[in-house]
Design goal:
By secondary structure, this protein is of the alpha+beta class. The protein has two domains: about 170 residues, Sandwich (Immunoglobulin-like); about 150 residues, Mog1/PsbP, alpha/beta/alpha sandwich (Protein Transport Mog1p, Chain A), CATH 3.40.1000. Helices cover about 25% and strands about 35% of the residues. It is built from eight helices and 18 strands. The strands form two sheets. Strands 1-2-3-4-5-8-7-6-9-10 form a ten-stranded antiparallel β-sheet, with helices on both faces. Strands 11, 12, 13, 14, 15, 16, 17 and 18 form an eight-stranded antiparallel β-sheet that branches. α6 crosses α8. The longest helix has 19 residues. The protein starts with 10 loop residues before the first helix and ends with a helix.
């Protein structure tokens, strides 16, 4: 397990909230010149806002770029990268009562993979997690579904909504800022002393989604009182059954299959899955399928309902077929006709979260 090195100034998190343009104007910089600054230095993308920020030791100079977003858990999440490509995560929680300059060990995971390392209390309500220069971490944040951070004896889940589009904007901002600062003699030392190492939860498992990531996704979607069949007891099937869970009186499951190419073949995946279901139905098989939804020209979602009717019984499957960076997945809930509304509601919660994570909603 790789940790983060120590050493980051407490003043940095406060300075990160102060836009470089606003400070420069306060210092008497020509407003017309400020207005002509490159558009890349202002970011408003997929629910994330920010741009170029000043150095804490010289407010007339750009020190780094950052983007932030407010979450329903009461926290503000900030990603920032300085001109030396050192990245950090900042958490702001007005309810915290941290001891300034204190350090604690935190756990950070992306879709169930991650590591532990130190975080610094920049103030009583601000915590800074230095990540260093690690492109694969940025890519994991960009491609991931949910980031979890365990800090101050609490676990916080952050759906990574919009990061696929917003983090490249952060990189563009840094590149432009570096060009603008190239001919300026900067003070010695970086305005952010982020270390070069961190955990690297970037490689997808050939076995599919880890259980921890699934729990994070279902919880973020709003499913409650979940219980899971131990993974080693999940039977093998043609469609790679990964997990089985129960929510209330209905059963849920996740099937996954690796994505073989960049092509979007969600229709073929869903129809193949339904063909397997029909082959196992001893009675009448009825299907309703939605039109496929495609997000950012690389992700997809399709929802559906299947009924298997016999003289003795009737069962309903509510399904959400999803395509992410690495896998085709189907989340489903199975129920009797009497519990069909709950199955539909729980599955729709998952579909709505997938839309949000894929950039369909912000």
């Amino acid at each position: 397990m790789v940790g983060w090195s120590r050493g980051i100034s407490a003043a940095l998190a406060i300075a990160a909230l102060m836009p470089a343009l606003a400070i420069a104007q306060d210092e008497g910089v020509d407003e017309d010149a400020a207005a002509e600054r490159p558009p890349e230095l202002t970011i408003d993308e997929s629910g994330w806002t920010g741009g170029a920020y000043s150095r804490p030791d010289d407010p007339t100079l750009i020190g780094y770029c950052g983007i932030s977003r407010d979450y329903d858990n009461g926290l503000t999440l900030v990603f920032s990268t300085n001109l030396d490509n050192q990245t950090r995560i900042t958490l702001i929680n007005p309810e915290w009562t941290l001891t300034p300059d204190s350090e604690q060990l935190i756990q950070l995971g992306i879709d169930g993979r991650g590591g532990e390392g130190p975080a610094i209390a920049a103030s009583d309500t601000v915590m800074v997690i230095p990540l260093g220069e690690l492109p694969q971490m940025i890519e994991a944040l960009r491609q991931g579904n949910v980031m979890t951070i365990t800090a101050s004896e609490e676990e916080f889940a952050f759906p990574l909504t919009g990061t696929f589009a917003a983090l490249p904007k952060l990189g563009e901002c840094v590149a432009v800022a570096r060009e603008l600062m190239a001919d300026i003699e900067l003070p010695e030392g970086s305005p952010e002393e982020a270390p070069p190492e961190t955990a690297s939860p970037t490689e997808p498992s050939a076995d599919g989604m880890p259980l921890e990531a699934l729990v994070d996704i279902l919880t973020a979607a709003g499913l409650e009182d979940l219980s899971f069949v131990p993974p080693e007891q999940v039977p093998e099937t043609e469609m790679d059954l990964r997990y089985i869970w129960q929510v209330g009186s209905i059963n849920g499951a996740l099937h996954q299959r690796p994505r073989p190419s960049e092509a979007i073949e969600i229709d073929g995946f869903s129809e193949e899955y339904l063909a397997l279901l029909e082959s196992r139905c001893p009675g009448e098989f009825i299907v309703e399928l939605s039109e496929s939804e495609v997000f950012q020209e690389r992700y997809a979602l399709r929802t559906g309902r299947a009924e298997c009717l016999t003289d003795e019984s009737a069962s309903v499957l509510e399904m959400a077929f999803a395509l992410d960076q690495f896998f085709y997945s189907v989340f489903y809930h199975e129920a009797t006709i009497e519990d069909a509304e709950q199955a539909a509601a729980e599955t729709e919660k998952i579909a709505n979260l997938i839309r949000e994570l894929a950039g369909g909603e912000n």
